[in-house]
Amino acid sequence: MSELRYDGRVAVVTGAGHGLGRQHALELAARGAKVVVNDLGGDRTGAGASAGPAQQVVEEIKKNGGEAVANPDNVATPEGAQAIIQTALDTFGKVDIVVNNAGILRDKSFKNMSVEEFDSVIAVHLRGSFLVSSAAWATLREQGYGRIVNTSSPAGLFGNFGQANYATAKMGLVGFTKTLAHEGAKYNIKANAIAPVAWTRMTEDLLPADFADKLGVDQVTPLVAFLAHESNADSGEVYTVGGGRIAKIFVAEGPGYGQKETLTVEAVRDNWAAINADSPLTVFKNVGEQMGPLIQQLTS
Ligand code: NAI
After folding, report:
1. Are residues 210 and 281 in the same domain?
2. Atom of ligand 1 nearest to the CA of 242
3. Which helix (H) or strand (E) holds 133?
4. Is 6 annotated in the active site?
5. Cβ atoms of residues 122 and 165 within 8 Å
6. Is the preceding peptide bond at 280 cis, omega within 30 degrees of 0?
7. Domain extent at residue 292
8. Phi-psi domain of 286 (left: phi exceeds 0; alpha: psi -120 through 50; beta: other)
9. Are residues 93 and 212 part of one domain?
10. Each residue's pLDDT tens digit in the chain (300 positions)?
11. Is residue 260 assigned to a domain?
12. Are residues 164 and 86 located together in one domain of the fold?
């Protein structure tokens, strides 16, 4: 089988100074893409800033014979996001691939979570992905080509103690991804999301140490690179990935319960088992399809 290449493609990877983003940038560059390595360079909580991490990754890419440019802007501000995409346009003349990866952690039990802890995490993960994608969108539409990969998390999809802020942002990215997939379809813009697990500074005190060497960032990047490749035809999907395993995560609906008479509290109680039934599950492609069973009930 032929090697997947990205020659002639321009990729923007946010938060690429460390961890997963760094690996995505290295891999895309090694396979021929020109890469904007964005990173604000703060610590795990988002405190501080430094141009160093992004610059170091660029030097590494260049040393390996690749092409890259550093950008130290903040994904969470409109000006920062605009500047990140402008760096791609000014340096390489276009943008084809956007990997929204930048992230911070401000874990706290819900009882103790401050508005600032909630807002700052939403700002980087959710608002940042919106702003950077938005800054690239007109170009992607005009050229009739784009690949967007958003970074969700199992914590967002399934919930996790101490991460009400993070989980909200990460589940938000699922709806964001599915909507971009619909709006981008006509322009050959594919948007997908990953829910990774990898050993990075973000997770080194959260994951079991025994698995450190098995949960390398290099076990996540191949999926990101595939989703960012022109041969990927799928859009609006979410995949969990890490440690050599990949699986698709579905938003699905059960068979449900319906009645012609006006619903009462007692009818809900009496049909609770049917309402909660989880087989068969249906995965709807859009909200119109999801209305199907209801329309059928209303018209039968
Ligand atoms: P990391 O801390 O090594 O990398 C995150 C990078 O984002 C850092 O280099 C940081 O400087 C940068 N960043 C933070 N705020 C930024 C901003 N406002 N603008 C630009 N850059 C900014 O963490 P890791 O693990 O590589 O995380 C990457 C992504 O993967 C994050 O979105 C994270 O939530 C997600 N993720 C990671 C998991 C894991 O197991 N490592 C699990 C699930 C999701």
Report:
1. no
2. 40
3. helix 128-143
4. no
5. yes
6. yes
7. 265-299
8. beta
9. yes
10. 799 999 999 999 999 999 999 999 999 999 999 999 999 999 999 999 999 999 999 999 999 999 999 999 999 999 999 999 999 999 999 999 999 999 999 999 999 999 999 999 999 999 999 999 999 999 999 999 999 999 999 999 999 999 999 999 999 999 999 999 999 999 999 999 999 999 999 999 999 999 999 999 999 999 999 999 999 999 999 999 999 999 999 999 999 999 999 999 999 999 999 999 999 999 999 999 999 999 999 999
11. no
12. yes
For residue 8, with 0-12 CB atoms within 10 Å meaning exposed, 13-18 middle and 19 or more buried, which class applies?
Answer: exposed
Q: Which residues line ligand 1 (CB under 6 A)?
A: 14-15, 17-21, 38-42, 44, 46, 53, 74-76, 101-104, 124-125, 128, 151, 153, 196-198, 200-203
Determine the 3-state secondary structure of 132 from DSSP.
helix
Q: In testing the pocket of ligand 1, which one of 12, 14, 18 has its CB within 8 Å of the most ligand atoms?
A: 18
Task: Give the domain CATH number at 245.
Answer: 3.40.50.720
**In whole angstroms, what is the distance from residue 183 CA to residue 258 CA?**
32
Q: Are residues 243 and 276 in the same domain?
A: no
Same-domain check for residues 131 and 14: yes
**Alpha-carbon span 49 to 154, nearest angstrom:** 28
Interacting residues of 298 by C-beta distance below 8 A, sequence separation 6+: none
Look at residue 4 and tell me if it is in a domain: no
E strand or H helix at 19: helix 19-30
Query: What is the CA(124)–ligand 1 centre distance, in A?
Result: 9
The active-site residue, picked from 166, 187, 239, 257, is 166
* CA of residue 19 to ligand 1 center, whole Å: 7
Question: Does some domain include residue 102?
Answer: yes
